[in-house]
Amino acid sequence: MKQFLNLLVIFTCLTIASMGQSISAKTRIKEAEKSYHAGQYNSALTKLEQAEKVVGKVNSSILYWRILAQRALLPGIKDPAFYTNMKKFEELEILRENCIIFLKNYGKLAALNEQSNKVYQVQQSLKGYPVAKVEFDEIMHLQNAIKSNH
C-alpha cells in the first residue's frame, strides 16, 4: 500500500510539473507570436527556442512561427545585404528545411490547413534564391567585386 501511495504522489507531481511546462511553453509561443506581429523577429525566435526547450521538441506551433520569423528576417533576393556573408545562405537553408519538415509532418492535417498554406507560400517565395552554396558564393564574390570597383 505504501508503494502505491508513493507512486501516486510521484505521478501527481509529474503531472503537475508537465502541466506547468505546457502552460509555460504556450505562454512563450504566444509571446513569440506577439513579437512577430510587432516586427521583433529576433525576439520571436528567442522565445520560440525557449518554448522548444520547455517542450523538449519542436511542435507545429513553434515550427510555424519560426518559419514566419525566419522569412521576415531574410533579405530580398536582389538585396545586396543578403550576399554579405555565408551565414545568410545557411539561414536560407535552415528556412527551406523547416518548410519541408512542416509540410511533411503537418501539411495534410485539416486543423492546420491555413498554416500549411502560409508555409507553402513561404516555401514558394524562396524559389528565386540560390540553391547551391557555390551559386551563393559566386554572387557574393561578384557583389564584393562590384563594391570594390566603386
Overview of the structural elements:
The radius of gyration is 21 Å and the shape is elongated. The protein is built from six helices and no strands. It has two domains: 73 residues, no CATH class; 76 residues. 77% of the residues lie in helices and 0% in strands. About 11% of the residues have low confidence. It has 150 residues and is an all-alpha fold.
Key traits:
single chain; 150 residues; mainly alpha; 2 domains; 6 helices; elongated
Q: Categorize the overall geometry.
A: elongated
Q: What fraction of the residues are assigned to beta strands by DSSP?
A: under 5%
Query: From the helix content, strand content and strand pairing, which structural class follows?
Result: mainly alpha
Number of strands: 0
- List SSEs in N-to-C order: HHHHHH
Number of helices: 6
- Span between termini: 84 Å
Mean pLDDT: 83
Radius of gyration: 21 Å
Largest sheet: none
- Spans of at least 5 consecutive residues whose pLDDT stays below 50 are 4-9, 11-21
**Oligomeric organization of the protein chains:** single chain
Helix content: over 70%
Domain count: the total is 2
Structure summarized in a few sentences:
With 150 residues, the chain is mostly helical. It folds into two domains: 1-73, no CATH class; 75-150.
Could you give the topology of this structure?
Blueprint: H1 2-37, H2 41-55, H3 60-73, H4 86-106, H5 113-125, H6 133-149
Helix pairs in contact: 1-2, 1-3, 2-3, 3-4, 4-5
